[in-house]
Amino acid sequence: MRIILLLFCLVCSFSISANIGDMPKEQQLAMKYMEALTDHDYSTLRRFYSRDTIFFDKTANTTYTGGRQIIGFLQRAHEGVLEYRLNIEHMFNTGSLVVIIGSYRLRGPGDQFGKPGKIIDLAVPGVTTLKFDNNTERLIEQMDLMDYQTMSDQLESQ
User: Fold this and answer.
1) Which of 54, 63, 74, 104 is the most exposed place for a label (fewest CB within 10 A)?
2) Alpha carbon distance 155, 25 (integer Å)
3) How far is CA 101 from CA 20, 38, 81, 87, 142, in A?
């Protein structure tokens, strides 16, 4: 389970062609959140979370609730990471709900994936939805949907 969650949470950098200032406020907030997540900036992430924030990986059916649980998970998952990146292919919002469609790339020690002594390299398509409270600018819920079959296929070939 940790292996599955590690992939989508450990985002190290992302690319997007639009200027952040040209985006709707909700998308700007999403980009700031993703940048903090990408940079493993736990101090900034704490400001996005409340004790009611939900981090839900629907595909893996795993949930963390509250800033303390979420940060704890992220710190464990970030341990030993070599490279993580999110390439955003499309982003849109409807009100305070922001949808990010992209590809998550992970390079890391194979030990975490049952491949000791190897460096693994994965690129997995995924969708992340972020719902914000517009008044407080805190994250209400993050839901990730990842193509774990693609991840499994890539792991098998390495």
Assistant:
1) 63
2) 38
3) 17, 16, 23, 9, 13
Query: How far apart (Å, rounded) are the C-alpha atoms in residues 116 and 50?
Result: 37
Q: Which helix (H) or strand (E) holds 63?
A: strand 62-65
Average of per-residue pLDDT across 21-33? 92
Render pLDDT for 31-45 as a digit per residue (tens, 0 to 9): 999 989 878 899 999
Q: Is there a contact between 76 and 64 (Cβ–Cβ < 8 Å)?
A: no
Give the residues across from 52 on adjacent strands.
none
* Cα–Cα distance for residue pair 30/100, rounded to 1 Å: 9
Say if residue 150 is exposed, middle or buried (CB neighbours under 10 Å; 0-12, 13-18, 19+): middle
Q: pTM here?
A: 0.82
Q: Which of 139, 6, 120 is nearest to 60 (CA)?
A: 6
Give Cβ neighbours of residue 15 (< 8 Å, ≥ 6 apart): 87, 88
Whether 69 and 50 have beta carbons less than 8 Å apart is answered as: no
